[in-house]
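2024-03-11 09:14:02 INFO receiving multi-entity request
2024-03-11 09:14:02 INFO entity count = two
2024-03-11 09:14:03 INFO echoing inputs for audit
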Amino acid sequence: MIALAGVYHPGSSALHRCPAGIKLFVLCVVGTTAMIVGSLPVLGAGIVLLAVGYAIARIEPRAIWRLSRALLVVVAIIAVIQALVSGLTAALVLAARLLLLVGAANLLTLTTPTSALIDVIERVLGPLRRFGVDPGQVGIAVALTLRFIPVIATQAARIREAQAARGVRSYRSFLLPLVISTVRMADGVGEALTVRGFQAGGARHG
Amino acid sequence: MIEFRSVSHRYGDRPTLQDVTLRLVERRIGVIGPNGSGKSTLARLCNGLVKPTSGTVLAEGHDTTRETAAVRRVTGFVFQDPDTQILMPTVAEDLAFSLRPLRLPAAEVARRVDAQLEAFGLVDHRDHPAHLLSGGQKQLLAIAAVLMTDPAIVLFDEPTTLLDLRNKHRVMETIVGLSQQIVVVTHDLDLLDRFDRVILIDEGRVAADGAPGETVAFYRKLILG
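2024-03-11 09:21:47 INFO inference complete, emitting structure
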């Protein structure tokens, strides 16, 4: 199974106890810096610091491997293409950026309960209410994304199996059923949100 | 209590329910019928997920068209596929998510989540990713999540269809043991023995309505001859 996003891993480490708002802020800083800085040593130092973060959070090596396995494959493919197009240094910089960004985002989701993330997003986006943005809905959308990445990945694996069973290999016969099943799932999720007290347009009935 | 007063419903030009009048007061009610007969629409009408084209549906006295919020407070709905119903990444988080609209203090949320995990035998799975649970565990979690807000009525749309025999039995035992009024749409006729009333829907109309044995026998005769 592909697992590019970490699911909350309960614990009592300093990173687990750190407020979600601070972690989200640090993630923003790391992300922005990684995109601005093109220095390989700096990005490398960032990856080392990230590894220290995982050690502090006491995430089991097996869990890290499970998460990074799929990421490494994706990064390797992108890096090879980049190396062919723009050269080795550019490819290494891009690979380091991706590792740092996805690794930091994973560390956030691994050490932060989803409800805390939703709360922070609601608070941060609060001022945007006057422009018609519903912070609650944005928070829930982020949480749903985290929840449904593995579900959609499982669905993709099933479709690939079905293709293999029939000896078919084409992007069209893979993407079409995946998109249809995802849209159907989105329909079901919408209904599930409705019956659990969350309405479109932001109104809640408590 | 759920009441249907001369309810009809159509999807576009296709009628799905025609002039249905029912008063559902029994605690355990089954709804059976062939595919496309309108039984899922009947369940969705009960909590306002689907609105009647004509007529009125009342849930605990609340009009499902005009008082949607009140209807959702008194009803819970469990779908066939728990994968779309479990909305948070881990088991405990999904249970807590049901309480989010109530804005309860964190300690109270934690207390209720712990109690529900215990009641549904999910304590050992508390922090497990929901997508890694078995089909039966997922459906139990979906039921547990719906019950977090203690609705008076719980509606089930084919809750055991995707389950193996063991999980089907476990989930059905849980459903039958609930203290709430339950309305279960199902194809599993053997599971209806302990129900108080079974309604057969065929071609959008109530074709039979009565004790489980009689209604199921009528259904078998209708379909199998």
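2024-03-11 09:21:48 INFO post-check: The interface with chain A takes residues 47, 49, 68-70, 72-73, 75-77, 79, 81, 83-90, 93, 96-98, 100-103, 127, 129-131, 145-146, 149 of chain B (CB under 8 Å).
2024-03-11 09:21:48 INFO post-check: The two ends of chain B are 34 Å apart (CA to CA).
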